[in-house]
Amino acid sequence: MSATTASASNDQQPVGLSMSQVEQVRAQLQSDIEMLQSSIQRLQYAQEGFGESMVAVSRLPTNNQENSLLVPLSSSMYVPGRLSDPEHVLVDIGTGFFVEMRPKKAQDYFKRKHDYIQVEIDKLQKVLYDKLLTRQQVNGIIQMHLQQQQQQQQQQK
Hints:
CATH architecture: Orthogonal Bundle
Low-confidence stretches: 1-14
Order of helices and strands: HHEEEEH
Helix content: 55-70%
Largest sheet: 2 strands, antiparallel
Number of helices: 3
Number of domains: 1
């Protein structure tokens, strides 16, 4: 969902709707909020990966004497390895494609990806904030409806 689409749906004013319609608006907002939170978490996880890759490339040995290192097989399991060419690294650029780069260029690539994801996270957080404000307004409308119903019931007694 783009930021413009999400903000356009925030312009709806639920005042004057029936209680069931207001509940539907609240349910849709809750669904949107959960989706945005999940998307932000996934982006933060990807961003962490690029940050870790950037640090890993910066720590590569630069001389031919110290070219042994630990290669991660998972987040908790490493095997000893040997860097045959410290002047070049293979970078996974997505969908199974790898590009050979110099370590400095690889660091720049990871930094660009890290920064790009941060921009996208910031956009989603703004949309999320707007959705949270709208949900708060809708909850206020629901409270107002409930208070009106209670007042009507008290007057009928």
